[in-house]
Amino acid sequence: MHIAGITAHPNGTWATQQAQNVLRMLSAEGKRPQIVIRDRDVKLTKAFDAFLRAEGVSVIRTPIAAPKAKAHAERWVGSVRRECLDRTLILSRSHLEHVLREYVDHHNTHRPHRALHQQPPIPKPIPIRAPPDQAHIRRRDRLGGLLHEYELAA
Q1: Which residues does residue 152 pair with via DSSP β-bridges, in sequence order?
Q2: pLDDT tens digit string along 63-97?
Q3: Quick one: the chain helix, strand, coil %, rounded to 5?
Q4: Which domain holds residue 11?
Q5: Is 83 exposed, middle or buried (CB count within 10 Å of its CB: 0-12, 13-18, 19+)?
Q6: Could you give the CA distance from residue 97 to residue 84 in angstroms, rounded to a whole number?
Q7: SS3 60
Q8: Backbone dihedral region of 65: left (phi > 0), alpha (psi from -120 to 50 degrees) or beta?
Q9: Has residue 7 got a pLDDT over 90?
Q10: Sign of dihedral through CA atoms 60, 66, 71, 76?
Q11: Would 75 be classed as within a structural domain?
Q12: How many domains is the chain partitioned into structurally?
């Protein structure tokens, strides 16, 4: 998961710029998307689609009133709301950005995912295991204790 940008007033130009930023960031990581599945929001203009196609990315528009066609996005939005935003009083735009970036980092590097056999999308190296009677667990709190991460202490 990547956060492209946050604005109170999105428009077509802004959405196209965010697509450029995300493609640049993914290219720097050695990744290249092949397909973008998008809804029919008016902010995703012909210029948005044309930019993606020029970059070699196929654009698939979801059918009208078909939330199951974009179930992965709906699931992520539901997770971030239930696990984070419904439990946090957001004070400003910068606070929202901080909270979302912390949650995305937690989601990508620590939160277990069923489809990945309870591993995060970006797994950390597995430490050398100590015998069970000598193992120590370290807890890291994120977002003021809203999220907890556990790992074996070295």
Answers
A1: 137
A2: 988 878 888 888 889 999 999 999 999 999 899 99
A3: 45, 15, 40
A4: 1-61
A5: middle
A6: 13
A7: strand
A8: left
A9: no
A10: positive
A11: no
A12: 1
